[in-house]
Design a protein that fits this description.
Elements: E1 3-6, H1 13-21, H2 23-26, E2 30-33, H3 44-52, E3 57-58, H4 62-69
């Protein structure tokens, strides 16, 4: 079984597009995104659609969680 694990796109749709062109990605039996699809670069929505649209397993990273649920109380002190 071939597994591809990737993470930390941070809204960089171009990095995701390049990964998805690779033979390893296309031939994988299982693809797992390990978090942080959003924030920093301007294409967070496109990254989310690109991951979910391909049926990849999606685990939330800290930036994904912050966007979905807000900052934890101890980090709201800033």
């Amino acid at each position: 079984m071939k597994i591809v694990a990737y993470s930390d796109l941070h809204g960089n749709k171009y990095a995701l597009e390049e990964l998805q062109k690779t033979k390893d990605y296309k031939n994988a039996d299982l693809r797992i995104f390990l978090g942080d699809a959003v924030a920093m670069c301007p294409y967070s929505n496109e990254c989310l659609k690109g991951i979910w649209g391909n049926g990849d397993i999606f685990l939330l990273g800290n930036h994904d969680g912050y966007c979905a649920y807000g900052l934890p109380k101890e980090e709201n002190l800033l």
